[in-house]
Write a structure and sequence with these properties.
It contains three helices and three strands. A hairpin with a 2-residue loop joins strand 1 and strand 2. The protein is rod-shaped and about 100 Å long.
Length: 83
């Protein structure tokens, strides 16, 4: 068998592929519109992770507030002021 060549030449508005194959009036790649990549910060890229961290910090503060004598101290301070 003979050796086959794959030759691509592009003229004005046609593409010649190989020997005598022609694609006319083609717009391959001319209407390619790629949207620009959005620049997101860390908080926009990882909202679930941030939510878990905030819930953990909030829960820790509630635990410290309720499980220590801080709540009793605040109640006594409010009672002594007379509010």
């Amino acid at each position: 068998m003979g050796k086959k060549e794959a030759k691509i030449t592009m003229n004005d508005n046609s593409i010649n592929v190989g020997n005598g194959n022609t694609i006319t009036s083609s717009n391959i790649g001319n209407n390619n519109q790629i949207a620009p990549k959005e620049n997101k910060n860390f908080f926009e890229r990882h909202p679930i992770f941030i939510g878990i961290i905030i819930a953990f910090v909030g829960g820790s503060l509630v635990y410290v507030f309720l499980e220590t004598n801080l709540w009793t101290s605040i109640k006594n301070l409010i009672s002594s002021i007379g509010i």
